[in-house]
Automatic annotation (TrEMBL):
This is MmgE/PrpD N-terminal domain-containing protein. SUPFAM superfamilies: 2-methylcitrate dehydratase PrpD. Residues 9-239 form the MmgE/PrpD N-terminal domain. One of its GO terms (molecular function) is lyase activity. Belongs to the PrpD family. InterPro entries: MmgE/PrpD_sf (IPR036148), MmgE/PrpD_sf_1 (IPR042183), MmgE/PrpD_sf_2 (IPR042188), MmgE_PrpD (IPR005656), MmgE_PrpD_N (IPR045336). Pfam families: MmgE_PrpD_N (PF03972). It comes from Jiangella asiatica. The lineage of its organism: Bacteria, Bacillati, Actinomycetota, Actinomycetes, Jiangellales.
Length: 449
């Protein structure tokens, strides 16, 4: 390997990374991101399309000993596919906002499938996850996101695949050359565009990213390498082809000193990442001031990117409802909650709710709003209009979810008994952790379309 390329620097960083290399605050953050991913995977067991994905994973991959969170075992590829889907199924997993990339649905399933099959400690499980989170977010810096996005690319299936590949390679204990080979093989499978927005395919990008990462690491371990310069090659390198050259220097700047994974946001509610500030703004107003029968209209202002994804979205199915600014506004006003139960088929088909959403909620672009901000103007029959503004959402780096909130999220989907295992993973083996994950059924309310 050439000593000074971004690929070489990343590969050595991943191969040599040890849990003790992470500062205590970063270790805590990795554990919290991992715990949030487990909670989301448990919740995803009851999502509308999970049964279909599980059926396909079983038919295509067959039985095996790899853990499905909350659901027994499958062959490694099937387990990675299903776990990746479950983590993202209810639209409440993490997001790295600078590249609009969900990271854990790719990284965690690939690492879990590898780690539980070998003699891997909980510390090494967490180290591999940390490596995947850090690589993926740094690649998000490197792709020069405005250029990358203008070409239509959807980050999870592109940079998430590479992060998953390198993370799984770390879990396998590969050396720097092996990690670099996995990176190359991951890049050879990098794909997914925004044409999928609003369809189940947007979730497929992430689940497939986990599978591709698993395959890349296993192929690399078997001696089947990929391009050593998959990022920077002038003829087909990821940065060259997907981002007009990108910003390669950003990928390794202060590598191991500044932890980009700390910029990952976690979601408190089951709704699009672009609508988390909207939910927070609505719930910040006392219920007595927001009686739906007293409301004449609710004007929602979203920043341009959020509006493009959520402003005109309907709510015909579970996924679109979670991405619909009008529906989320309406159901939160009526229920004072934004959880799985708010997106069931029965709730979405409620006639008065739909009438309110169509007649009394308007959504437009808000000039000058920060990227995850929101503005509300609520007109009431009694009392003066209410104006509410938020610059960001709970769960973002400036307002991170507390560990207690993450514990509450885990408990809400039936994972309360997992608390000691999930938060104490560093003191256990990966196999022990995996056994607990597959033996814990989800208690999330089903949301069938």
């Amino acid at each position: 390997m050439k000593p000074t390329t971004p690929e070489t620097k990343l590969s050595r960083f991943v191969a040599e990374l040890d849990w003790d290399d992470l500062p205590p605050r970063v270790q805590d953050r990795v554990v919290e991101i991992w715990a949030d991913a487990v909670a989301n995977a448990l919740a995803g067991r009851s999502a509308a399309n999970t049964a279909a994905v599980e059926g396909l994973a079983t038919a295509l991959c067959g039985p095996g000993d790899s853990t499905v969170v909350g659901g027994g075992t499958l062959a490694p590829t099937g387990a990675a596919l299903l776990n990746g889907y479950q983590i993202t199924a209810f639209t409440m997993c993490d997001v790295y906002r600078p590249a609009l990339c969900h990271v854990t649905p790719e990284v965690v399933p690939a690492v879990l499938a590898v780690a539980e099959a070998g003699d891997v400690s909980g510390r090494d499980l967490l180290t591999a996850i940390a490596a995947g989170l850090e690589v993926t977010t740094r690649l998000g810096l490197g792709v020069d996101y405005p250029v990358f996005r203008a070409r239509g690319w959807h980050a999870p299936g592109v940079i998430g695949t590479i992060g998953a590949a390198m993370a799984a390679a770390r879990a396998l204990g590969l050396d720097a050359a092996g990690v670099c080979a996995a990176m190359g093989l991951g890049g050879s499978q990098a794909a997914g565009t925004f044409a999928a927005l609003g369809t189940p395919a947007v979730k497929f990008h992430q689940a497939r990213g986990a599978v591709s990462g698993l395959w890349a690491a296993r192929f690399a371990a078997g001696g089947l390498g990929g391009a050593e310069n998959i990022l920077t090659h002038t003829d087909g390198g990821l940065l060259t082809t997907y981002a007009g050259g990108g910003r390669p220097g950003h990928i390794t700047r202060q590598l191991g000193e500044r932890w980009e994974l700390e910029q990952i946001s976690l979601r408190r509610w089951a709704a699009a990442s672009s609508l988390q500030s909207l939910v927070a703004a609505l719930l910040s107003v006392p219920a007595d001031d927001l009686r739906p029968s007293d409301l004449v209209g609710v004007d929602v202002a979203l920043p341009p990117t959020s509006y493009a994804m959520c402003g005109d979205m309907g709510w015909d199915d579970e996924l679109s409802a979670m991405q619909s600014a009008r529906y989320v506004t309406t159901v939160v006003l009526h229920d004072r909650q934004c959880w799985i139960e708010q997106f069931t088929a029965d709730r979405r088909s409620d006639v008065p709710l739909a009438q309110f959403a169509r007649a009394r909620v308007s959504v437009d672009v808000g000039a000058g709003l920060p990227p995850s901000g929101v503005g509300l103007r609520i007109t009431r029959r009694s009392g003066s209009p209410l104006v509410v503004h938020r610059d960001g959402a709970p769960g973002e780096p400036a307002e991170p979810l507390t560990r207690e909130t993450i514990r509450e999220k885990l408990a809400a989907v039936g994972g309360g008994s997992l608390d000691e295992v999930v938060f104490g993973v560093a003191g256990r083996s990966a196999a022990e952790v995996a056994a607990a994950l597959r033996a814990t059924p989800s208690s999330a309310t089903a949301g069938r379309s």
